[in-house]
Specification:
This protein has about 150 residues and is mainly alpha-helical. It has one domain (about 5-140): Sufe protein. Chain: A. It is built from 6 helices and 3 strands. It has a 3-stranded antiparallel beta sheet. The protein is globular, with a radius of gyration of 15 Å.
């Protein structure tokens, strides 16, 4: 398994969609970004993704159950970038650490987005995914690892 079922379904939906429908689908996912919880107001504790053309902030938290909670902030005027956040949120929020870390780096190419949006935007989305995975890796502590034996 290379990615959680929810994300795999989203990837398949995009990959099989006609090119003229892909942009509409992206716009729908831009609406899937939940508002930030109060403790993240002002981007406290969030990381900015400078590879994005627009101000984009993220925070990936690992719960004691080793599932991942995702928080994104991106202005509504950047629907494509918000769509990346919406796709990750819909496909990965609540997934296990191992599932998140197994997501392939070429996720957006597998979705067929490279044919529908600019390479610069695809690079921004890829940077979001990479930073999210790094945060998940860094937030794991020895106590959070399964015990051996």
């Amino acid at each position: 398994m290379d990615m959680p079922d929810k994300l795999a379904a989203i990837v398949e939906e995009f990959a099989s969609a006609p090119r003229d429908v892909v942009l509409e689908m992206l716009l729908e996912f831009s609406d899937a970004v939940r508002p930030l919880p109060p403790e993240l107001d002002g981007h406290a504790g969030m990381e900015q993704v400078p590879e994005c053309q627009t101000p984009f902030f993220l925070k990936a938290e690992v719960t004691p159950q080793r599932t991942v909670q995702l928080h994104f902030d991106c202005p509504p005027e950047a629907p494509t970038t918000r769509a990346f956040a919406g796709i990750l949120s819909e496909g990965l929020d609540g997934a296990t650490v191992d599932e998140v870390l197994a997501v392939p780096a070429d996720l957006y190419q597998r979705m067929g987005l490279a044919a529908a949006i600019s390479p610069l935007r695809v690079r921004g989305g890829t940077a979001i995914l990479a930073r999210m995975k790094r945060q998940v890796t860094e937030s794991q502590t020895p106590e959070g690892q399964p015990s051996e034996g």
